[in-house]
Amino acid sequence: MTLIDFSAGEPQFVDHLAPVYLALPPQYRGDFIVMSSLRSRVQAYGIDGLARIDHPERPIVVCSYGDHKRARRQGRKLIARMEHGAGQSYFGDMRFGGNSSYAGGKDCQDASLFLCPNDYSADRWQAAYPNARVEVVGCPKLDDLPAKQDGPLTVAISWHFNIPLIPETFWTWPYYRSALPVLAERFNLIAHAHPKAMPMIQRYFLRYGVEVVADFADVCKRADLYIADNTSTLFEFASTGRPVVVMNSPDMRRDVHHGGRYWDWATVGLQCERPADLPAIVEQALADPPEVSAERERVLGLVYPYRTGAEHPLALG
């Protein structure tokens, strides 16, 4: 019997890995390795998070480059790398296309298995590492995303954190924050952000009396519609059957094609190009016209070919 360890260095990584860990037969579940600050998040899944790192002979599953490097330093020889999002990459601009944090990135040659949400991501990894095993498994996190609970009609708005390297990785916060006062007046608005972005924008939301909701699962419980820029949660929320609005900015180059969010998946929801147009587009999106919901489902078929019961390969060699 081979025990399989898991390692997560950030809260969103826990949310992606925990469903896979729990889908394994109990006899295969090794240690779920986290820092002490994340133990409560792991324990919320009924998993006892540990800080043990003394089993280099065991296979280990990670879902970030940082945790991949940590596993390497620990002497792990069997590393499975799972995407912690929709699998976005940026090969339309080679200044960033080979970044190790994204599908097909450099310095991941010691991963023997890549677990991918879709063919887009899988093709990137397979092209970069032709001898590795690459599997499309969907996004196990989707199985646990909650439906809307009873409550007032609510709009959520969210941002990814800023990566100031190429225009498509810039966040749209500076461009769209002027729309917040109007949105807050017209809708019951809640705010969310990537954990790395939250400290930078939280005060601004509070100034306008907008409640900040840190946990994405809580956003799913409360929101009827989700507005976001370049984040996998855009597609995760859409997978629950509710409309989304996609925030674009002038920085994003329409003539540069990375695939994925830029621009094959951008029609997962109505797209907004200007802050002044955002309230009206939100009103339109809330109606969720048939042609919009049909396009959402088409795009989700590309992003998540497995929408539930995602497969979890056990062989990591």
Description:
Helix content is about 30%, strand content about 15%. The radius of gyration is 19 Å and the shape is globular. The protein is of the alpha/beta class. It folds into two domains: about 140 residues, Glycogen Phosphorylase B (Rossmann fold, 3-Layer(aba) Sandwich); about 160 residues, Glycogen Phosphorylase B (Rossmann fold, 3-Layer(aba) Sandwich). The C terminus is likely disordered.
Class of the largest domain in CATH? Alpha Beta
Query: What's the shape?
Result: globular
State the order of secondary-structure elements, H for helix, E for strand: EHEHEEHEEHEEHHEHEHEHEEHH
Read across the widest sheet, the strand sequence of neighbours is: 3-2-1-4-5-6-7
Mean pLDDT level: 93
Please, how many domains? 2
Largest sheet: 7 strands, parallel
Query: What is the CATH T-level topology of the largest domain?
Result: Rossmann fold
| End-to-end Cα distance | 14 Å
Radius of gyration: 19 Å
CATH architecture of the largest domain: 3-Layer(aba) Sandwich
